[in-house]
Amino acid sequence: MRAIHWFITGIVVFLISGCASVQTSPTAETRQVLAPTGKLRVGFFAGNPNHAIKDSASGGFKGPAVDLGREFARRLGVPFEPIAYTSFPPILAGAKSGAWDIATMGMTSERAQIVDFTAPYMIVQFGYLLPSASSISSLADVDRSGVRIAVLEKGTPDVYLTRTIKRATVVRLPTLAEMVQALQAGRADAVYGTVASMFNQSGKLPGSRVLEDRFGGEETAIAVPKGRQLSAAYARQFAEAAKSEGLVKTAIEKAGLRGVVVAPIK
């Protein structure tokens, strides 16, 4: 019995110490490396509800990137500063120029050459936005000669389409607004992106619909500019805490996201 008692006690101590490690306050060195300007500058793709969109009431941004970024800054002990982007290439350029300290983005091998990723904190499914008169009802209908699919240039959906589409034409555009405009003007037959974003846009286009199935997806993670080991270590710790403490789940539910789930705890 005594052996069992000490065994259980050891487990409890281990669990408590593990939880404490997640909550450990950052050192002054870590804080300086993560937030060299005195603020935590969090980069994200604006206009995508999986990351952040404009709040019509406040005029600011809201979404998982904002919720998690603000909590990250709070734990770091510095003010939160959102850095919004309307297209993806400038986000990667920002990693090289030092425009942001951490960012939220889908994980790809190409991006991993520029940034260091945490483990994913959520998994996002992709889907197609179709106009009211579209006859497309399946993936087989999409991947046909003559079909034009608008996609965000250099975004994760672009990476997936480039790898999988055989017959349809991929139309790469720099912003989500231009993708939707192409659909409305008849220059594209479908828009491909995250399910949440497609539903968000569908609500603005009368008669449009979202085709959602197993059409690919992405693992979304926190990124830091390449080579910042202290920043990466603290970000990885925060990402796991955010999942285990329910912060990611709360952010997803608060944003009302569809086709998005919490990634497994590592």
CATH class placement of the largest domain: Alpha Beta
What kind of assembly state do the chains in view correspond to? single chain
- Average pLDDT score: 89
Number of strands: 12
- What's the architecture of the largest domain, going by CATH? 3-Layer(aba) Sandwich
Indicate the proportion of strand residues: 25-35%
The secondary structure category is: alpha/beta
The ordered string of helix (H) and strand (E) elements is HHEEEHEHEEEHEHEHEHEHHE
Q: Which residues sit in consecutive blocks of at least 5 with pLDDT less than 50?
A: 1-23
Number of domains: 2
Task: Determine the N-to-C terminus distance.
Answer: 33 Å
Radius of gyration: 21 Å
The number of helical segments is 10
The outline comes out as: elongated
Question: What report would you give on this structure?
Answer:
With 266 residues, this protein is α/β, with parallel strands linked by helices. The chain folds into two domains: 167 residues, Periplasmic binding protein-like II (D-Maltodextrin-Binding Protein, domain 2, 3-Layer(aba) Sandwich); 94 residues, D-Maltodextrin-Binding Protein, domain 2 (3-Layer(aba) Sandwich), CATH 3.40.190. Helices cover 40% and strands 26% of the residues. It contains ten helices and twelve strands. The strands form two sheets. Strands 1, 4, 5, 6, 7, 8, 9, 10, 11 and 12 form a ten-stranded mixed β-sheet that branches. Strands 2-3 form a two-stranded antiparallel sheet. The longest helix is centred in the N-terminal third of the chain and has 22 residues. The radius of gyration is 21 Å and the shape is elongated. The protein starts with a helix and ends with a strand. The N terminus is likely disordered.
